[in-house]
Amino acid sequence: MGKSSLLSHGGRLQLIKSVLTAMPTYLLQTLKPPKYITERIERLFNKFFWGSFGEQKKMIWSSWESVCFPTEEGGFGVRKLDDVIEAFHTNSGGDSEINNLFGHTSFSTNIAEGPTRWWLNLPTMHQPTGKDFVAPVKKLSLIFWSIGKGEVSFCQVPFDDERTDLPHWKLSGDGTFTIKSTWNSFRQARTALQLFKEIWCPFVTPTMSIFLWRLLNDKIPVDQKIQSKGIQLASKCTCCNNIETLSHVFLDGPEISKVWEFFARKLNVILPSTKNITLFFSYWRFSSIGKNHIRTILPMLILWFCWLERNDSKHRGLKFNSDRIIWKVHQFIQTIGRTKAASSVNWRGDSNLAYCMGFPTCVKRKTNLMTVKWYKPDRGWIKINTDGASKGNPGPAGAGGIARDEKGMPIFAFYEFIGEATNMYAEVYGLFKALQICQTENIHRLWIEVDAVNLIRLIKEPSKGHWSLQNMLSYINLFLRKWNSGLHIFIGKGTRRQIILLTWHAQPNHPKLFGEMSFRVISRAFLNVIDWKFHTYELNESNFEAF
């Protein structure tokens, strides 16, 4: 611990994340220690982080429990040991619990009136099995079963004899058990704030991010804050005779005001008249364009180098100099430019300032363009195109499709608003719905074209899909094997009329199905302005794949 005093807050946090929290997690996977033990370990973590170790005592500015949250929820991105151990115990007992519970479709008990057999109605199980059995049952409610041969027959779903029955962990995207998803379900959550998420951007160091976290939470040791702790201290600002307060040091002091005014003129920003640092910082964020924009990064750098300048003035006897802060900010931004970590997106709308700082922002990406044509199916076949999309991913989602004959004439089209869903769910649902319609209409000689490579991969390996997709994927695979339909990937975003059909009505309450005549009436208005046979798209040829 002697050399630990040389570490910055960012270095200590990284050491805690990568080493100190990993050691007890590894050692305690099979044991569940008393809460006293984990609390004792976490107190040691907290003392180490704030620099209080051995005979060296320093002020502890926050409890360890208050920082054990994701960064967007106002924490440091570390986890409580109790939550992690609970997640590990779910994993260690998960396989055996699943095998014991679902290895047979019923259980035998010998309680009260003798042997009793009962169905797997897990949510309603109570005391006959004892509390040791009820606890894992609560965890098993997070498992969804995709049915293969149907050996676990407790719900009506499509049966796929070529697949084995597999449990799917509902909390993960691909159905596999993960500690992260399990921990996220056990832990206490707080409201996510975009402001706290942005201070951990990749263009500032972890030590800067921790400083900004302390600043936004009023945990910076300015004179006024130290006095509030009951410590007698004469306060005087290092650049004037005023009392040293948080707002005076970082916002309205005579020297720091020059820095804010200098960069405000460069970016054409009107400075807000507030002494609240959170509101002041948020004002700069609202004027930015996109993620990790220069208008978000710049206030972070000004606040950080202002604090360094204050410490040099107070403890090293240097004069507080606004020009030195401006120079340090310039140097840091130029360092970002030399490492090529940022791009023109981070300077969008402020390219003049980027040019003055020598930041190369005019480099354009090379795009590969090609013409994509919709081809008619062979004689006697029907081609169907499906598509789905979500606004927000997850967000309001819709799906639709079009079927055409060998002459390119539409046979039917459909679209449906499916509520809150992901892009992948919408893609799978669009194909699933199209095949249902084809089965109803007795259409079996199909060419199917979709635009999502991941959808093709899921159909090949449905076990890797999210639990909510399993029944639809089983239906799709059964249909394709039964009717020997062809499935091809289509480069682009389907035909133009299909996209219009998906977006024309934003939120229908029920699925809409159009026949040939009604579809012609709907699409006729668009044919005068859209050439729906030929379209140009940005293309990466390596993404082309056929099934």
TrEMBL record:
<dbReference type="Pfam" id="PF13456">
    <property type="entry name" value="RVT_3"/>
</dbReference>
<dbReference type="Pfam" id="PF13966">
    <property type="entry name" value="zf-RVT"/>
</dbReference>
<dbReference type="GO" id="GO:0003676">
    <property type="term" value="F:nucleic acid binding"/>
</dbReference>
<dbReference type="GO" id="GO:0004523">
    <property type="term" value="F:RNA-DNA hybrid ribonuclease activity"/>
</dbReference>
<dbReference type="InterPro" id="IPR044730">
    <property type="entry name" value="RNase_H-like_dom_plant"/>
</dbReference>
<dbReference type="InterPro" id="IPR002156">
    <property type="entry name" value="RNaseH_domain"/>
</dbReference>
<dbReference type="InterPro" id="IPR026960">
    <property type="entry name" value="RVT-Znf"/>
</dbReference>
<protein>
    <submittedName>
        <fullName>Ribonuclease H protein</fullName>
    </submittedName>
</protein>
<dbReference type="InterPro" id="IPR012337">
    <property type="entry name" value="RNaseH-like_sf"/>
</dbReference>
<dbReference type="InterPro" id="IPR036397">
    <property type="entry name" value="RNaseH_sf"/>
</dbReference>
<feature type="domain" description="RNase H type-1">
    <location>
        <begin position="378"/>
        <end position="527"/>
    </location>
</feature>
